[in-house]
Amino acid sequence: MFVSFFPRPRAFFISVLVWMGFAVGLWYLGAKGWGAIIGLPPAPPDQAPIVGVSIFWSKPFLWFYIYYWAAIALFAGFWRLVAPHPWARWSVWGSALIVFATYLQVEVSVAVNTWYGPFYDLVQAALGHTRRVTPAEFYLQLLTFSNIVLVAVTAGVLIDFFTSHYVFRWRTAMNTYYTDNWATLRKVEGASQRIQEDTMRFSTITEDLGGSLVNSVMTLIAFLPVLVTLSLHVTVLPLIGHVPQPLVLAAIFWALFGTSFLALIGVRLPGLEFRNQRVEAAYRKELVYGEDDADRAQPPTLTALFADVRRNYFRLYFNYLYFNVGRYLYLQVDNIFPYIILVPTLAVGAITLGLLNQILNAFDQVRSSFQYLVNSWTTIVDLMSVYKRLRGFEAMIAGEALPALETAT
Which residues pair with 236 in a beta bridge? Predict the structure, then answer.
């Protein structure tokens, strides 16, 4: 799954984490200010945030772009020397481009959150008649918003197009790797489906989950400082009282609770999904044999095979029943959770409408990032079932014993 696309996968992914930690640490330890050498200094601490699309070509942003791609070039160059790989341009440089585009989309969200303050304060001034507000001021604010989201639309369309090619290249690499070992793999149950369908599903789901994970991490990096700053206006939590950084603590607690809760009630789903693929493959295989051999796919055989399909689906439906009860209850409470923790602050009128919307948006971004596993759990279950099937393939190639689920009845 990975060796076909990435150079020395285990060492590669460890080096990704190490290099990423080093690059991020170096950035905050001083590299952030190195841009001043070439005329791209960081923003002064007392400078008001830039509201509008010009933030994306401001000097601090331009220096970050240079720093990021310089770090990628060094990393890619190292692996090109240590372990040349035919798919390195896609697996290394392609992954870096997807991460960069994800970062850009997160920064669009930050820019929109910054825009919320002056816009909703303008709305409050107009509705509260605290000052005269002209239509031109509203149109100007809406134009500013349109320019910001235009960056998101452009980046989103282009990266979706690129990601489609990235996923297919990964599938091509896996397809080539498995077909080269077809003489060994053809004996595995559902071999044709695993090569034709599971490789496509694995690459697509992994890219989707990986992209979501990168987005969550970058959203945390971008919005946690925002939420820390906004926490200065919210100092009290219901039932608890005064605590430091209440918004951050509330977001972490709620996300950890939801993740632990759903992991507990959904622990059986990956195995059931895997068995579902097995019984479906066995039923489909008998039907395929029956197309060319009149003695195959007889009604008693098909009835028995379909009974296995039915039995496993009904077990899956039952497990999803109580899993979805818990999941939907959590998500419905999640919709009002920010307002619950803001009740003491709202009751005394301690914040303006602009600050309220900035807090709600920043809190939602941080909370949803911490809820990565909650939001992705059903997709993770699907990926785990596909991974188990392809892992059985690779056990055959390596001459290892098949995983227990492959031989379970």
Answer: 242
